[in-house]
Design a protein that fits this description.
mainly alpha; Helix Hairpins; 4 helices; about 80% helix
């Protein structure tokens, strides 16, 4: 692109043609320079994208591994909570059974207390009856003494009656002694019944406290069971959310792989474009020093210089070159990947 025709200075048609041709060549040189700059910019940008894509791929893999570990932990937690729920329900059922047993025991203790009260009342009646028997025995003893006195007054005729009176007195004495023994025994029974009644009352109070405590435990276990079931449902929802997040991360990882493949293809195309544009020989002021130029400077658009360039003496022009059209296979591949990537990364 450096050879230029020199005007003769006569300002004729040929000079005008030469000037127009040189202007066209200048603009083509600037266009090729911009193409080279753009190709290098694309290659550099794709390299940046490639490095970022590698970092993204690593982070995506780390996220996938972390989500798998989280999913396993959540599954284990679901299993543990399920076992806890089962154990809590079982404990709740056992506590309810214990309440029923304690209620039966309380009813039995209450019946026992009632029976002890009846025994105490029966013992009191026995004591009253024994008092009556003692009174009858005492009166019988007096009668036997009076009969003995009258028999002694009667002399020989009252001897038989005196024997009977002595026997009656002896029987009354033995009855009195037996009555006293029975009274003492009944009093001991009354004391034991009173103690037993007191103990039964304490036992009944203890059973009532046990029943109340077991009911409180049963109510607490019921609340714990309900809360555990709700927690289990929440953990299951978390598990489903983690599974969905894992699917999204796997889908994003596949998109990252496709993006890497697309970036590789674009990099090859850009290098091919850069190689093609480098075949043109440009003037010094139109050339781009890619080693010294920064990426920020390259992406800044340049303006076409309107001033006429001073070109050296014309020389033989370079052979004409025509760029080859892109292959259909690679074009279709780019279009397919672009349509797939067009769906975008999923968010969660």
């Amino acid at each position: 692109m450096t050879p230029r025709a020199l005007a003769t200075g006569e300002d004729d048609v040929m000079d005008q043609l030469i000037r127009k041709t040189n202007e066209t060549l200048d603009r083509m040189a600037e266009l090729i320079s911009q193409t080279q700059r753009a190709a290098y910019t694309v290659v550099t940008g794709i390299n940046h994208i490639s490095r970022g894509n590698q970092s993204l791929a690593q982070r995506t893999e780390q996220q996938a591994a972390a989500m798998e570990e989280t999913s396993a932990t959540v599954e284990q937690l679901i299993t543990t909570i399920g076992q806890n729920t089962h154990n809590t329900q079982r404990a709740d059922n056992l506590s309810k059974e214990a309440v029923a047993v304690a209620q039966v025991g309380g009813a039995t203790v209450e019946k026992t207390a009632q029976a002890m009260s009846e025994m105490a009342e029966a013992s009191r009646r026995v004591v009253e009856m024994m008092s009556l028997i003692n009174e009858i025995t005492f009166q019988t003893n007096l009668l036997s003494i009076n009969a003995a006195v009258e028999a002694a007054r009667a002399g020989d005729q009252g001897r038989g009656f005196a024997v009977v009176a002595n026997e009656v007195r002896s029987l009354a004495r033995r009855s009195s002694e037996a009555s006293k023994d029975i009274q003492n025994l009944v009093r001991e029974i009354q004391e034991k019944v009173a103690n037993g009644k007191e103990w039964v009352g304490e036992l009944e109070t203890g059973f009532m406290k046990i029943i109340q405590t077991i009911k409180q435990v049963s109510d607490a276990l019921t609340e714990v069971s309900l809360a555990t079931q709700e927690g289990s449902q929440g953990i299951e929802q978390i598990g489903r959310a983690v599974a969905e997040m894992t699917d999204v991360i796997e889908h994003n990882a596949a998109l990252v792989d496709q993006l890497a493949h697309t970036t590789d293809i674009l990099n090859k195309k850009s290098e091919l474009l850069q190689s093609m544009s480098s075949r043109f020989v440009l003037a010094e002021e139109s050339r781009v020093d890619f080693e010294e130029a920064s990426f920020e400077a390259l992406i800044t658009p340049s303006r076409v210089d309107k001033k006429p360039n001073k070109w050296p003496t014309p020389r033989a022009s370079s052979p004409r070159w025509t760029p080859a059209p892109p292959k259909e296979k690679e074009s279709r591949e780019l279009e397919d990947i672009d349509s797939e990537l067009g769906e975008g990364f999923e968010e969660f």
